[in-house]
Amino acid sequence: MRCVIIDDEPLAVDLIKEFVSKVEALELVYTFNNAIDAIAIINQNPVDLIFLDIEMPHFSGIDFLNAIDKKPLVIFTTAYENYAVEGFNLGAVDYLVKPIPFNRFLKAVTRAQQLFSPVVTTPNPASLAAVETAHDFMFVRAEYENVKLNYCDILYIEGLKDYVKIYTTDNKYILTLISLIKLDAQLASKGFSRIHRSYIINIKHVTSIQKNKVIIAEKRIPISESYKSLFFEKIKL
Fold it and tell me: What pLDDT tens digit does each residue of the chain (237 aa) get?
């Protein structure tokens, strides 16, 4: 998620920047020390998540939310507890009171991730079979042709900047120009799960889970903290 920090306290900005750097799912694109400067930028360059202070000189965080055209996900970061009700009435994902501990920050971000990329619930077996029969493959562009890939033949997918490597059950891989985010959205309902900034896995091919790794075809693939709770929820662990 592309995120922004808006806070008039430099120490608070530095702390949230440090926290953001530890979460692979977050990409910090802007920081602002006042809400007025942020309005034009956010209106012209929409983002996914804002860490927003409320009490700021001249123009509050609440004023800011009312002034922007498209409202992203918002996590309030404030020294005052008395705005909590108003914050949630404005649709805030969470409300963090300073000083903010990292575990509380991570919980709020996980909640934002769930709203940004909701886990797809499993339909009943009959409807699932119908869906899989109708949509059990995809085509990907590789070199000069479109290659058909059955979902069941995909082991895992590794992101490489603008490209991805799709590893298959025949011990080969296909290199294609597509984003991992787009593939994640396409495959989430097909038995796949993103477990790391750089990896999507086919859950049916997981042979074991060891600490912060899954094993697929003898490959040890890391599970990052920012994706762990969603993955474990998906596999009912």
Answer: 899 999 999 999 999 999 999 998 899 999 999 999 999 898 888 899 999 998 888 888 888 988 888 889 999 998 877 665 555 566 788 888 889 999 999 989 988 888 886 444 444 444 434 434 445 888 888 866 788 899 999 999 999 877 899 999 999 999 988 888 888 888 888 899 999 999 999 999 999 998 899 999 999 999 998 888 888 888 877
Beta strands in 40-183 (DSSP E): 49-52, 73-78, 94-97, 137-142, 145-150, 154-160, 163-168, 173-177
| CA 20 – CA 186 distance, rounded (Å) | 26
Decide if 98 contacts 12 (C-beta within 8 A). yes
* Spatial separation of the C-alpha atoms in residues 116 and 33, rounded to whole Å: 26
Phi–psi pair at 71, nearest 5 degrees: -85, 120
CA distance 172 to 113: 32
